[in-house]
Write a structure and sequence with these properties.
about 210 residues; alpha+beta; 4-stranded mixed sheet; two-stranded antiparallel ribbon; about 45% helix
């Protein structure tokens, strides 16, 4: 019989004694899944993180609380908190405002740690931003201003071009057309108040039902 798994959102399970009052906190991009950095939190740092919405650590070198980005402005906006099965490690979901690493990279582990499909989440977020802000001169803005019928027409055109590339052109052309199709589909979903995440939810539900 399998034991019931502990609730990963139950912060009362945290075992502060195991690490002499400090727990490792792995920070992960809330959208792409990219591992951004590792820090340490004490109870005060966790409280400050929850209260301010900006990820805060206990700096072992400075021996004080340290909010990521307090000097650079590249803060980590808190999105979620999870506890591992043993209650001695935190997984922090965050939205970075600028590069996380002091070297200028998005992650302290380099630029190649983002999951391969993680960029789709960034694309989805960028399209949502374009929908909200409508920056002048943006192709995405022009699509939104054309309305849902025009966007749907573009999806149809790109779908046909992708199909034709699949049977009559090389891999480079097929990938290019497929990229155009995914982009325009993302725009269409956003115009309808939906997202790529909603599509993955449907796919996941279908997979679970099999």
């Amino acid at each position: 019989m399998t034991d019931t798994l502990p609730d990963p959102t139950d912060l009362s399970r945290l075992d502060w004694a195991k690490g002499d009052g400090l727990l490792p906190a792995i920070v992960q991009h809330a959208l792409t899944g990219e591992v951004l950095m590792l820090g340490y939190m004490d109870a005060a740092a966790l409280e400050a993180t929850q209260r301010t919405g900006h990820v805060t650590f206990f700096s072992r070198s400075k021996q004080r609380l340290w909010t990521k980005g307090e000097s650079s402005g590249h803060v980590l906006a808190l999105a979620s908190l999870r506890v591992d099965c043993d209650g001695d490690t935190l997984l922090v979901g965050a939205l970075p405002h600028g590069p996380t690493c002091h070297t200028g990279t998005s992650s302290c582990f380099g630029e190649s740690v983002r999951p391969p499909l993680g960029f789709l989440a960034e694309l989805d977020a960028l399209v949502a931003q374009r929908h909200a802000e409508r920056p002048e001169g943006s192709y995405t803005t022009r699509l939104f201003e054309g309305g849902v019928r025009r966007i749907a027409q573009k999806v149809g055109e790109e779908g046909v071009e992708t199909a034709l590339a699949g049977v009559a052109q090389g891999d480079t052309e097929l990938l290019g057309e497929a990229a155009d199709l995914v982009f325009h589909l993302t725009v269409l979903l956003r115009e309808r108040g939906l997202s790529l995440s909603d599509v993955t939810d449907v796919l996941a539900a279908r997979h679970a039902a099999k």
